[in-house]
Design goal:
Blueprint (H helix, E strand, L loop, with lengths): L6 H14 L2 H16 L2 H5 L2 E3 L11 H10 L2 E7 L5 E5 L6 E3 L5 E3 L14 E5 L2 E3 L4 E2 L5 H6 L7 E5 L5 E2 L13 E4 L3 E4 L2
Parallel strand pairs: 1-2, 1-6, 6-9, 7-10, 9-11
Antiparallel strand pairs: 2-3, 4-5, 7-8, 11-12
Helix pairs in contact: 2-4
């Protein structure tokens, strides 16, 4: 994959690979990711976790969100703003999600402001791929780069991926925000350099 120079080409290739997965493969990936994350010490001790409601071919987060919420963790989910930035509101169970912008499910609770992510003890983020230094390839809108820029350096930031999406190297730009770990079905939590 290192021969692919463009983020756009790489994103297209990886999203096509996800789309080719059978629904049962995608479904089977959710449980080991959830179980790995629930046993991470930072997640176990977190009072507040910023996460996201998965859409489309992303690794499914529904059971993870529900498990965190039932455990008593305060879960923040993003609300996509018209300028592409992310606001945050509390997750109050599966019935609290409503359709939002670009096919996203968003919390129906009152927004707490884009800076609310700075109060999270752990941040879970979507990604198309991540490299071994934490460079994250998203969908190209920059929403999570802006949000992750508000997160302190000691906070565990984790991208949820399918197997094969943790790669050796990705093209990076100055505005790209790195994650500190990834969670995959086969590898569990992998901390990055």
């Amino acid at each position: 994959m290192q021969d692919i120079v463009s983020k756009t080409d790489l994103r297209t290739e990886l999203l096509a690979r996800r789309a080719a997965m059978r629904p049962e493969e995608r479904s089977a990936a959710a449980r080991p990711i959830r179980d790995a994350l629930l046993s991470v010490p930072e997640v176990e001790m977190a009072g507040t976790i910023a996460a996201y409601a998965s859409i489309g071919d992303e690794p499914d987060t529904r059971s993870l969100l529900f498990a965190l919420w039932k455990r008593g963790t305060y879960v923040l989910l993003p609300i996509l703003l018209p300028d592409g930035d992310l606001d945050w509101a509390s997750y109050e169970g599966p019935d609290s999600l409503v359709p939002g912008a670009r096919g996203c499910l968003e919390p129906s609770e009152p927004p707490r402001g884009p800076g609310a992510i700075a109060g999270a003890d752990v941040v879970l983020t979507p990604a198309v791929a991540v490299d071994r230094t934490g460079v994250r390839l998203g969908r190209g809108g920059g929403s999570y780069d802006r949000a992750l820029a508000r997160v302190g350096p000691a906070i565990l930031t984790v991208a949820l991926l399918y197997d094969g999406e943790l790669v050796d190297a990705l093209p990076a730009e100055p505005h790209d925000q790195r994650v500190r770990a990834v969670a995959t079905p086969s590898g569990g939590l992998v901390r990055l350099d």
